[in-house]
């Protein structure tokens, strides 16, 4: 009875009850990104068939490239590349799961618990392969667009559902190898994961919270379901039964045990939670947006709600995000003679402090592979130094500590024969396989050997 009472009275807004309200400036790109993802579904933006209220507000002439299932050959969901001159952004938007496409299910099923390590944590193997395929295909295009526009535009990766996992891992790879896209600064790399899939371990989710933003609408089931993605979509047609059983099972798993499991995957980055329903209230209320970088209690509880699946739809998310942005703008209206309530510089410093606090919190909770903010900053500086010292041709990737040797020169010449970056080789160079066949970060593997 106690369990039934707790579960039946638990609502989605409880996850973010203590979080602060987001500002209009930081939330402003999200409705625009949602429309960008919706545009992937349109065969012709000049004559749209499924336009949201107010239209897509995109310039069809700025669409650089559209890629459908026929071109991806099942290696990735369809996507488009759009250059937004108004907001100075280069956007790669990826659509969500197609329930009638076998290739999308293959991506989800290509994973086992603890199968793939990356950058000191665990990630979804199939989504990582899809991300490397997209970079193999489009890295030259993205690099050319960024250089042609004065190296000033942001590089934005966006996706919904299945596409959110691919976009998140795209941004993680690019953040680690910025020289492969012309040396783009980390501060210009952004990712917006809408209705995010659980695709990376907790230490990585917190580590990359400065560049990845996840958007969750109230009771959405996918960010809350700890069951591996491959198990969820095996049971897509009896999903309510699965969610109830998972909810029952997780009730008896202690919080500490969840945090100590390094293979457990989570929704990535900073979370923006759109809340529009309240307990024992009928109908929807004006949506509000709460934001934080949670560590413990990071969307761990499934909500038994009739809206758990409808809140996952990109159409609803775009609509409610637009309403939430209008409410944020109205609540923060200032006249010319009134200074803004939250200075932009002060808010930027607050976001940076929240990220450092989250990193420290992860270390204090003994999260596997978590690093403190000081170690994170030093690793960023090291990455920048190594990327700038790899020669004039940024597509030539060599292992650290091999410069000056004949072997390294031979490796460089063999890799530089192909001017395009092979992102699978980049991943292989950064990691090594242990005796069990798992991929380990070479820095971590050397520590284990010692």
From TrEMBL:
Full protein name: Putative lipase/calmodulin-binding heat-shock protein
Species: Handroanthus impetiginosus
Domain Fungal lipase-type intervals: 91-227
UniProt GO molecular function: triacylglycerol lipase activity
EC number(s) given by UniProt: 3.1.1.3
CDD domains: Lipase_3
Domain Mono-/di-acylglycerol lipase N-terminal: 2-56
Keyword ATP-binding part of the UniProt annotation: no
Hydrolase as UniProt keyword: yes
Transmembrane segments annotated in the record for this chain: none
Source species taxonomy: Eukaryota, Viridiplantae, Streptophyta, Embryophyta, Tracheophyta
Keywords: Hydrolase
């Amino acid at each position: 009875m106690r369990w039934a009472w707790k579960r039946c009275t638990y609502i989605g807004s409880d996850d973010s009850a203590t979080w602060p309200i987001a500002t209009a400036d930081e939330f402003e790109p999200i409705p625009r990104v949602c429309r960008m993802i919706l545009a992937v579904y349109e065969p012709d933006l000049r004559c749209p068939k499924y336009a949201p209220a107010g239209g897509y507000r995109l310039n069809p002439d700025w669409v650089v490239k559209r890629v459908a299932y026929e071109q991806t050959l099942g290696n990735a969901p369809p996507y488009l590349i759009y250059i937004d001159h108004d907001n100075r952004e280069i956007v790669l938007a990826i659509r969500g799961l197609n329930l009638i496409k076998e290739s999308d299910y293959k991506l989800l099923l290509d994973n086992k618990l603890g199968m793939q390590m990356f950058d000191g944590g665990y990630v979804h193997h199939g989504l990582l392969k899809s991300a490397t395929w997209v970079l193999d295909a489009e890295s030259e295009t993205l690099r050319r667009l960024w250089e042609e526009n004065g190296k000033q535009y942001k590089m934005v990766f966006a996706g919904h559902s299945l596409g959110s996992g691919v976009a998140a891992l795209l941004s993680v790879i690019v953040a680690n190898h910025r020289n492969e896209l012309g040396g783009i600064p980390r501060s210009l790399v952004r990712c917006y994961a809408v209705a995010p899939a659980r695709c990376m371990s907790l230490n990585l989710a917190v580590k990359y919270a400065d560049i990845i933003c996840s958007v969750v609408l109230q009771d959405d089931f996918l960010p809350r379901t700890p069951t591996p993605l491959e198990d969820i979509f095996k049971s897509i047609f009896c999903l309510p039964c699965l969610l109830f059983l998972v909810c029952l099972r997780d009730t008896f798993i202690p919080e500490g045990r969840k945090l100590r499991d390094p293979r457990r995957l989570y929704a990535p980055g900073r979370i923006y939670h759109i809340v529009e329903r309240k307990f024992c209230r009928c109908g929807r209320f004006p949506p509000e947006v709460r934001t934080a970088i949670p560590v413990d209690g990071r969307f761990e509880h499934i909500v038994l709600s009739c809206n758990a699946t409808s809140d996952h739809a990109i159409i609803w998310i775009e609509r409610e995000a637009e309403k939430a942005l209008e409410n944020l703008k109205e609540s923060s209206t200032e006249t010319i003679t009134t200074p803004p309530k939250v200075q932009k510089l002060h808010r930027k410093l607050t976001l940076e402090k929240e990220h450092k606090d989250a990193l420290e919190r992860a270390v204090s909770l003994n999260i596997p592979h978590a690093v403190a903010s000081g170690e994170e900053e030093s690793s960023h500086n090291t990455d920048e130094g190594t990327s700038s010292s790899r020669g004039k041709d940024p597509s030539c990737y060599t292992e650290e500590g091999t410069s000056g040797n004949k072997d390294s020169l031979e490796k460089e010449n063999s890799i530089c024969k192909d001017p395009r970056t092979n992102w699978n080789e980049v991943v292989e160079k950064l990691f090594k396989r242990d005796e069990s066949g798992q991929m380990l970060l070479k820095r971590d593997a050397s520590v284990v050997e010692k």
